[in-house]
Amino acid sequence: MTKRSFAVFGSGEFLPWAIEVDRYALGLATSGDGSVVVIPTASAMEGNDVFADWARKGTTHYDSMGVDSRVSALRTRADAFSDDHLSQLEGASMFYFSGGNPAYLADTLRGSPFWATVVEAVDNGAVIAGCSAGACFLGEVAPDPSSDTLNPERWSAEGLRLIPQTVFGPHWDMLETWIPGVQDFMGNGGGSPRRHEDRALPSRGHCRVLALWRRPRCNLLAHG
Fold first, then answer.
1. Nearest CA to 118 among 90, 98, 142?
2. Domain locations along the chain
3. First to last CA, the chain
4. Helix axes 48-64, 19-28, angle to 10 degrees
5. What is the full per-residue pLDDT of the chain (224 aa) written as tens digits?
6. Are the beta carbons of 126 and 93 closer than 8 angstroms?
């Protein structure tokens, strides 16, 4: 297994400022044919038009870079077990999960052949990238933005823990305007390790909270 490579964004996927970051991320890939699979699954709950819009934005963005791309049409958990959707992953150098609902994305992919195929490809040199929900679900916690409460039993699902002991806070600079108290709820400090036994985080020792800002920049690109 090679070192895993990740690119995570707080917001702004497929905008012109992200071109440099995407090129760098693709340069980390040591397998595949240089192509990108755009995966808008996290937006599926918002309807076909929104899903199609993210798909279009992704392919248009990579076309502008001269990079081959294709869209995974995976919308449901049943799709994640379909050979047709698995075949879309073959040969890709990067998998890009765009924004939407992190809890839906995690629950749709959890334990599925689709997710297993992505992880195997990443372990063999492909890159996994994600923005907003597509970043969140990679850590310990996948929040559900449709929830109107910070009740631990309703606020989030377990993340898929490809990046363990980490909680991603996308839109960090805006979270308090949407859900007052959520920054403290997620860890109070945006990067300092602390225990979370009484919060909506798994009781697995120390977690780090990584704040991802909405300003147009890449906030974290990790290789390792």
1. 90
2. 5-143+158-168+215-223
3. 11
4. 80
5. 678 898 888 777 899 988 988 999 999 999 999 999 999 999 999 999 999 999 999 999 999 999 999 999 999 999 999 999 999 999 999 999 998 999 999 999 999 999 999 999 999 999 999 988 898 899 887 777 665 554 455 455 788 999 887 777 655 555 555 555 555 555 543 332 222 222 222 223 333 434 343 444 443 334 44
6. yes
| CATH numeric code, 5-143+158-168+215-223 | 3.40.50.880
Those residues with Cβ within 8 angstroms of residue 221's Cβ, 6 or more apart along the chain or in another chain: 6, 7, 8, 21, 24, 25
Q: Give the count of beta carbons closer than 10 Å to the beta carbon of residue 189.
A: 13
The pTM for the full model equals 0.78
Residue closest to 28 by CA, chosen among 63, 1, 4, 59: 4
Angle made by CA atoms 61, 62, 63, in degrees to the nearest 5:
90
Q: Where are the beta strands (DSSP E) in the chain?
A: 5-9, 36-39, 69-71, 94-97, 127-131, 141-143, 156-158, 166-170, 194-195, 206-212, 220-223
Residue 103's nearest CA partner among 143, 163, 161 is 143
State how beta strands 220-223 and 5-9 pair.
antiparallel
**DSSP symbol at 17:** G
